[in-house]
Design a protein that fits this description.
This protein is an alpha+beta fold. It has helices at residues 24-30, 55-58, 66-72, and strands spanning 3-7, 13-17, 50-53, 83-85, 98-101. Helices cover 17% and strands 20% of the residues. A hairpin with a 5-residue loop joins strand 1 and strand 2. It is globular, with a radius of gyration of 12 Å.
Length: 107
């Protein structure tokens, strides 16, 4: 079972065991990770599951599609080169140890 490490706004880290095939956002909600709001429930329509993906894992992810790129244009916090929406990152065994940082704000 892959583990995702969420670095929270206060600098603490939460490790969540994730089921392959679920999203980074779904695991954050299930694990009650503060700062991942997911107001749209994972339909790529709100950008409140914005995360910064650790450089070591960013290249392992498929590039964002057009809809995700459009939503990344309206994130509340600073958009960075490693910004992604948690609802669009599907957990796989290759992502075991994935580290994402929660931005200072989602709205």
């Amino acid at each position: 079972m892959p583990t995702i490490h969420y670095i929270l706004q206060d600098g603490s880290t939460r490790a969540i065991d994730a089921k392959a095939g679920t999203s980074v956002m779904e695991n954050a909600i299930r694990g009650n990770v503060r700062g991942i709001d997911a107001e749209c429930g994972g339909s790529c329509a709100c950008a409140t599951c914005h995360v910064y993906v650790d450089d070591a894992f960013f290249a392992l992810l498929p590039p964002p599609d057009d809809m995700e790129r459009e939503m990344l244009e309206v994130v509340a916090a600073e958009r960075r080169p490693t910004s992604r929406l948690g609802c669009q990152i599907t957990v796989t065994a290759a992502l075991d140890g994935l580290t994402v940082r929660v931005p200072d704000t989602q709205s």
